[in-house]
């Protein structure tokens, strides 16, 4: 194991796995004539936006997607010049830096459009915008009844270039769900409105799940997020390789007698004499307390149960008659090879999604390192 010697734990990001996943997804898109946007919002789902963006571009992505303008500007500051889209910021955000840095803006209403146009006039350029239509997710996006007015306002403003229209699918991870075709139909209607206004924008609708299952919805550009990180959003198997491994190490071991109990509340009691290994990670480091009594780790070539409650700073592993050495690697989740736990397993056990697990690993005490960095 090779984390920083002062760290408690390490997130290891395998950029070769990421390149493999992105190439697979970009290949699916290219077969339909579509380009690929790598979504690197939320610090690339906890994997590190700058190195992930570079690896994704190396593997075939031509666009990068961020949630906030600040995220996009961080990529620009790192010297990344690919096409970028930022799509959700507070109402008082100044869009001038987007115009100056060549970052496209995702806009959903007349107020945002006006602010983007004003910023473009101040910056002496044009705002490149992607108009978002709400096709049924009922989250961000322009309601259909306001869409014609938004399109007309954008078409009539010389400070604005309408690069694309877009939307987001609610149930693409459930192939065959009727909402998918319903949203696709509404998206096509929105596109016709833009054409009637004299515009010829790109279209993008497909997320990771739709990229894998609905080639008819690839249009001009697909936006891949969770699948790029090796976590499969659809029921059928795909050749995706998990990118993140979360690991720590054994601090110390001790032998306890049958009848002794472990951790707060003494919720677990040893049936026989056993060896316990102490690992210096807890819920402050991204291990959900709700995994108490349901968590295994990979230690010395075998799954071993974490016993007692997950604490803020530590967990305790029951090793039976095995005696791990201090410093022995402990994999909390990773690729699943040889039977080790995965982020999906954690998510399933606590009733959430693997997105939440990996994005939650951006923690002050967890060191991030990279394999496959070029």
UniProtKB/TrEMBL annotation:
GO molecular function: alanine racemase activity
Superkingdom of source: Bacteria
Reactions this protein catalyses: L-alanine = D-alanine
Protein's UniProt name: Alanine racemase
Modified residues (N6-(pyridoxal phosphate)lysine): 41
EC number, UniProt record: 5.1.1.1
Taxonomy of the source species: Bacteria, Bacillati, Actinomycetota, Actinomycetes, Pseudonocardiales
Entries under CDD domains matching the protein: PLPDE_III_AR
Function: Catalyzes the interconversion of L-alanine and D-alanine. May also act on other amino acids.
Family recorded in the similarity comment: Belongs to the alanine racemase family.
Statement: the UniProt record of this protein carries the keyword 4Fe-4S: no
Active site: 41, 264
NCBIfam families, sorted: alr (TIGR00492)
Native organism: Amycolatopsis magusensis
């Amino acid at each position: 194991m090779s984390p920083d010697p002062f760290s408690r734990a390490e997130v290891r990001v395998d950029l070769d796995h990421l390149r493999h996943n992105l190439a697979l997804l970009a290949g699916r898109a290219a077969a339909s004539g579509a380009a690929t946007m790598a979504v690197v919002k939320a610090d690339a789902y906890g994997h590190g936006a700058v190195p992930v963006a570079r690896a994704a571009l190396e593997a075939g992505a031509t666009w990068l997607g961020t949630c906030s303008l600040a995220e996009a500007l961080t990529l620009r500051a790192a010297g990344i010049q690919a096409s970028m889209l930022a799509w959700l910021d507070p109402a008082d955000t100044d869009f001038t830096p987007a115009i100056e840095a060549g970052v496209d803006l995702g806009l959903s209403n007349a107020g945002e459009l006006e602010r983007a146009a004003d910023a473009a006039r101040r910056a002496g350029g044009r705002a490149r915008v992607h108009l978002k239509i709400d096709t049924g997710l009922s989250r961000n996006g322009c309601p259909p009844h306001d869409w014609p007015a938004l399109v007309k306002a954008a078409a009539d403003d010389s400070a604005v270039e309408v690069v694309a229209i877009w939307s987001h699918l609610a149930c693409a991870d459930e192939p065959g769900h009727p909402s998918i075709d319903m949203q696709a139909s509404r998206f096509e209607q929105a596109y016709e409105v833009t054409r009637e206004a004299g515009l010829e924008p790109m279209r993008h609708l497909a997320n990771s799940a739709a990229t894998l299952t609905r080639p008819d919805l690839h249009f001009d550009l697909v936006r891949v997020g969770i699948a790029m990180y090796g976590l499969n959003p659809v029921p059928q198997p795909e050749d995706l390789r998990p990118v993140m491994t979360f690991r720590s190490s054994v601090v110390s071991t001790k032998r306890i007698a049958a009848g002794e109990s472990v951790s707060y509340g003494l919720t677990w009691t040893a049936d026989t004499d056993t060896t316990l290994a102490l690992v210096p990670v807890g819920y402050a480091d991204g291990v959900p307390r709700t995994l108490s009594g349901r968590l295994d780790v990979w230690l010395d070539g075998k799954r071993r149960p974490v016993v007692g409650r997950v604490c803020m700073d530590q967990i305790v592993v029951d090793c039976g008659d095995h005696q791990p050495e201090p410093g022995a690697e402990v994999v909390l989740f990773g690729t699943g090879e040889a039977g080790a736990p995965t982020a999906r397993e954690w998510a399933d056990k606590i009733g959430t999604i693997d997105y939440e697990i990996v994005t939650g690993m951006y923690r002050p005490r967890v060191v991030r390192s990279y394999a496959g960095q070029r």
